[in-house]
Design brief:
The protein is mainly alpha-helical. 72% of the residues lie in helices and 7% in strands.
Length: 180
Amino acid sequence: MILSPHALSFAVAIPLILLLYYRRFRRLFGRQPVREGRMITRIAILTLVGVMFLAFSLANPRALAADAGGLAVGVALGWWGLRLTRFERQPDGVHYIPHSWFGVGISALLIGRLVYRFVVFSPTMQLAAQDASRNAAPFAMYQRSPLTLALFGLLVGYYVSYYLGVLWTARRMGPGPTAG
């Protein structure tokens, strides 16, 4: 049995993506330590990717509006989720207990939309990859879908604002143990 490069890439990519999302969902439940370095790295990466999507959307007013609207709603949900998050000061540092359903719901919306887009547009993506004369933008498929951009903006806005709020709250609490 010989696998085509396309099938082989799916066979490698799908388990890796599932592992990443499993780790992501696992962090949405229970008490989590505040790890400044990791949170700052996530904030930087999400901000960079969000700015790239906004930049690619500048040519299309609908895409730009969807992305910016998703960002705004995501920021609002991030701060709301932060208000529902509990913080604890322990001997080993500050921990937070996230309101799990916010993160799960937002991630599930984006994953569901990306799976839908992938299934619907997979044949189109294969044809575009075979057409060497076409110079498409790297995110062209997603730029044509305002809903996908809005959901991505929502995800970026939520996690950037949420992590910034967690870091801010943890710094205010300080590293000492709880009195009492």
